[in-house]
Design a protein that fits this description.
It holds the Pfam family TolB_like. It contains 5 helices and 31 strands. The protein is mainly beta. The protein folds into 2 domains: 261 residues, Neuraminidase (6 Propeller); 160 residues, Protein Transport Mog1p, Chain A (3-Layer(aba) Sandwich), CATH 3.40.1000. The strands form 7 sheets. Strands 23, 24, 25, 26, 27, 28, 29 and 30 form an 8-stranded antiparallel beta sheet that branches. A 5-stranded mixed beta sheet has the order 13-14-15-16-20. A 4-stranded antiparallel beta sheet has the order 1-2-3-4, with no helix packed on it. The longest helix has 13 residues. The chain is elongated and about 85 Å long. The N and C termini lie far apart (58 Å).
Length: 441
């Protein structure tokens, strides 16, 4: 809980507002007010990081943070009595504003408790570390997690772990692993991981989520995660973790050794094959490829008009966490139906090929006519582009333009680093194209 919040705790709805904590008993017929408590506040302001360890004890962050001073306090709720202060603020990072007033903000964290024995786990938002405590505040283990991704600049504020949820055996937490600025600038492509830890400090599983989840809860009974996103309002996401659990032996050992478990998407499994279709075509993308996560059902069915054609199509991307690339790998399909019987297919294909020849932004351009009597062209080229940080990249592109059953078909395959790896499977996928009824005419 932070500042103001609303949570379920056992049979109670717990409301935190400023320095007041209210317990409301939940019944089938209606909810009833049960008790209210004034909480200990150093500053007179809201209580931050509050988490109920049990019905009578809570843990909270200490608001007047000082270097080397305790971070947390355990408080008896009924007696409003501080039981113990514990933890110690870490040494400031290189990017850290050394102003003492910012210490609490810059070392933001969330603390959760084991519902059975009261053990505590603190996950830091801007520090790649985790701390495990006994129910009395004794430090049991400090885990400085090694990461293959390091900040390119000491001035960047990286976000690591957020919004943990604890059960008797497991701790579930979102892993961000990127600068705060990148999260804000890339809301359409932001995809966090879900990490699963045990109470001994071992990283058991790691999943890449296929939506920009920013907060979640977990149902132990149904083994399901429910998440929402600041970037997509009015949507509740449900994940069945039974479908994404790793069953091989590639588990992480101690996270302190920096070893991660195999990454696996609980919704889009890397080896799963899909069928993509609408009213006008059917195609089988390669295993592990799918529509971009942002595509809606309406986009998959949509039909447009341009250059005398009714147009539909699809885009597919490779969602493999091991494929780290600026441009990744993508394939696109466009199906066009002439609006008029007088449409000149030969002239259209030829003019499109000429458009490529006249584009001076394309390197190593090659245009070849298709063989076996197929009316069309294969176009290959490379293209340079520069990312927002000024880094230059060279993508490889293979397009085909041809006629099939009276329709214009355009296929595109683009990648920077993985063109050769996926070239053949993408070609076979395009060959699986089946055309259905003609579009509106």
């Amino acid at each position: 809980m932070n500042g103001n919040s609303l949570k379920i705790h056992g049979e109670h709805l717990v409301v935190l507002s400023g320095t007041q904590l209210i317990k409301i008993k939940l019944h089938a017929e209606k909810a009833t007010w049960e008790e209210q408590h004034t909480l200990i506040s150093d500053t007179g302001g809201p209580i931050n990081g509050l988490h109920l360890v049990n019905d009578s004890v809570y843990v909270a962050d200490i608001g007047d943070a000082k270097p080397g001073a305790p971070e947390h306090r355990l408080v008896h709720l009924g007696r409003n009595e501080e039981l113990v202060r514990f933890g110690e603020y870490p040494e400031p990072a290189a990017w850290e504003n050394k102003d003492q007033a910012n210490l609490f903000r810059d070392y933001g964290k969330r603390t959760v408790a084991n519902p059975e024995d009261g053990r505590l786990a603190a996950f830091y938002l801007f520090q790649n570390q985790i701390r495990l405590y006994g129910g009395d505040g004794e430090l049991l283990q400090g885990i400085a997690v090694e990461s293959s991704s390091n900040s390119a600049s000491d001035e960047e504020m990286w976000i690591y772990r957020a919004d943990p949820f604890a059960s008797r055996e497991r701790i579930y937490v979102l892993y961000i692993g990127m600068p705060k600025k990148e999260v804000e600038e890339n809301s359409q492509t932001f995809r966090p991981h879900l990490e699963v830890w045990d109470w001994e400090g071992n990283l058991l599983d790691r999943f890449r989520l296929d939506q920009p989840i920013t907060t979640f809860t977990y149902s132990e009974e149904f083994k399901k995660l429910y998440g929402i996103s600041f970037f997509k309002e009015d949507v509740l996401y449900e994940y069945d973790l039974n479908q994404g659990v790793i069953t091989d032996n590639e588990k992480a050992s101690s996270a302190g050794n920096g070893k991660n478990s195999k990454e696996q998407d609980p919704i889009r499994q890397p080896d799963k094959k899909i069928i993509a279709e609408n009213d006008y075509f059917r195609i089988e993308p390669p295993a592990g490829w799918n529509y971009p996560p942002s595509w809606t059902l309406e986009e998959k069915k949509s039909v447009g008009e341009r250059d005398g054609l009714y147009l539909t199509g699809a885009t597919f991307v490779r969602e493999n966490p091991a494929d780290k690339s600026v441009c990744g790998a993508s394939m696109q399909l466009t199906v066009g139906v002439p609006k008029e019987e007088t449409f000149d297919v030969e002239e259209y294909l030829s003019s499109r090929a000429e458009d490529y020849r006249s584009n001076d932004q394309l390197d190593e351009l090659s245009i070849e006519k298709l063989a076996n009597g197929i009316n069309g062209y294969t176009i290959t080229y490379k293209r340079r582009f520069v990312d927002p940080k000024g880094e230059a990249y060279l993508s490889t592109n293979e397009h085909t333009l041809f006629e099939k059953e009276g329709r214009i078909i355009v296929t595109r395959f683009t990648s920077c680093d993985f063109f050769e790896r996926y070239k053949e499977v993408v070609r076979k996928a395009f060959q699986s194209l089946t055309l259905k009824d003609a579009m509106p005419g």
